[in-house]
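User: I'm designing a mutation panel for NAD(P)-dependent oxidoreductase and want to avoid disrupting the core. Could you give me a predicted structure to guide residue selection? Please restate the sequence first so the numbering is unambiguous.

Assistant: Good idea. Sequence first, for numbering, then the predicted C-alpha cells:
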Amino acid sequence: PAPRTVLLTGAAGGLGTLMRELLPEHGYELRLLDLRPVEGEPDAIVADLADRDALREAVRGVDAIIHLAGISLEASFDKILKANIEGTYNLYEAAREEGVGRVVFASSNHAVGYTPRPQGDDPLIPIGTPRRPDTFYGLSKCFGEDLAQLYWDKHGIETVSVRIGSCFPEPTSVRMLSVWMSPADGARLFHAALTAENVGHTVVHGSSANTRLWWDLTSARALGYEPQDDSEPYAAKLVAEQGELDPGNPAHARLGGHFVTDPPIWPH
Ligand code: NAI
Ligand code: 15L
C-alpha cells in the first residue's frame, strides 16, 4: 500500500516549511521533527539527530521518512560529521530497528558539484556522472547516498536519493535558472519517490522542466515524476540584473556554482 504517514525531518527549515504546506495535498499525514521548534506546530518533535532514542520513537509506526534535517550549506568538517554523517546514520538505524521500509533522502547537486556544467550543445549531466563533491557538505551527501545503498543491499530499506538543485519559491540567480525545482514540483517529486514501486536505491536529479536544464531527469521521470514548471519566465529579469553566466569564471563553469570557489571553512 502507498505510504500515508510520513516523518518529515528538518520540518522547521526552508524546504521543510514548503513541504509542510504542499505534501498534505498529495494525501500525506506528516509527523514533524527538527532541532528547533516548528512554528505553529506544537506537536512537532524537537530533537537532535544525535539523539538515537528520540529518533527511534519518532520513526515508530510511520510508513516512510523524508529526511531533510541537517546542515544545508558548507560548514566545518566536525559540524558536518555530527549532523549530516552521524545524524543520517542514526536515522537509518532507527528506521531499521523500527521496520520503516522507505526513505526519501535530500541529497544535493553539491555531491557532484565539480562536474562541468553543459555548454552549447553538450549533453545533459547523466545520473551516473562520477561523484565530485565540492565541499564537506557535498561529501556528506555522497555518504548519505552510499549509506542508502548499503541499507538497501543489506537490510532491504528502499531509498530515493534526490539530488536537489535549488528548491526555493523563485530562482534568485542565473545559475538557479538551470537547477531550480519549484516547490510544487518538489512535492510532486517527493510524492513520486514515496509511491513508486521497487525503487531499491534510486538516485534522481531534482529540478523542474527548465528550458536551461543542466542535468538529466530520466530517472526521476521513471518514478512517475512529471514536472510542471520551468524557470524561464524568471530569466529576463535575472539576466538583466546579473548578466549571462561567464564560462571563464570558475564559479559559473561547474554545477555547484560558488560552492566550488568559496574558501574552505577552517579550522575544524
Ligand atoms: P535548512 O537549513 O533551511 O533546513 C534544515 C533543517 O534541519 C533546519 O530547520 C535545522 O534546524 C534542521 N537540523 C539541522 N541539524 C539538525 C540536527 N542535528 N537534528 C535535527 N534537525 C537538524 O535547509 P533546507 O534548504 O530546508 O534544506 C533541507 C534539506 O535539503 C537539507 O538536507 C539540504 O542539504 C537539502 N537540500 C536543499 C536544497 C534547497 O534548494 N533548499 C538543495 C539541495 C539539498
Ligand atoms: C544546496 O544544497 C543548499 O542546501 C541550498 O541552500 C542551495 O544552496 C542549493 O544547494 C544550490 O545549489 O542552489
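For picking mutation sites, this is relevant: The chain has ten helices and seven strands. The radius of gyration is 18 Å.
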